[in-house]
Fold:
Amino acid sequence: MRCKPCCRGFTLIELLVTISLMALMTVLSWRGLDGVSRAQIRLQQQSDDVLALQATLAQWGADLDAMAEQPGTPSLDWDGRALRIVRRSSAGPGEGLRVVAWTRRNVAGQGQWLRWQSPPLLTRGALELAWQKAQGWAQSPSDDDLAREVRTVALDQWQIFYYRGNAWSNPLSSAGTAEGTSPASAASAQSPPGSGAVATVPDGVRLVLTLSPGQAIHGTLTRDWVRGLIGGGK
Structure:
């Protein structure tokens, strides 16, 4: 009489080794997937940073392109803190004018480049009030001003230069004023529209940004704007 051979199973050691290998493979796979996920998040963040910067610079150029130059009315002013612009409303010719302003302010411990825009202005009185309000927003914004501002990109510092007399110069220096005017008379552009002498609009505006580290694009960035009559509308 022949005995049937016994079926041999896994030993406890073999099971432990198998389970350990499976656990190790699971950990390695999870780390690989986590690394891929983190890389995708970083790429998406960098893409968002680039798109935000492009949109901001496009808005900056659009504000200057739409500048409304009127006799006896300041259209552009840089006081070292904020740049104010009187521009045509993008909604249509019947919507009047708007005052927009750009400044840098620390928000939640980080420098931010901010843009403020007034509602459509149909009267000279409303324009004068908005011109003053834009300057106050840059210094000490009210709750209403904060509701009208838009955060754009993280910014360490920024500078503005005007192009006049075939040279770039600081708008706050004597070289940055219109020919034949003093810095004091050029400063009258900070006064409300219709208040007297107004500094002429420069042929070009140079924007120098120092973008904060940690963004897709950081360091110093320069953007030049040229008046349409000078640059053929480009």
Summary: Helices lie at 12-65, 124-139, 143-148, 183-186, 228-231.
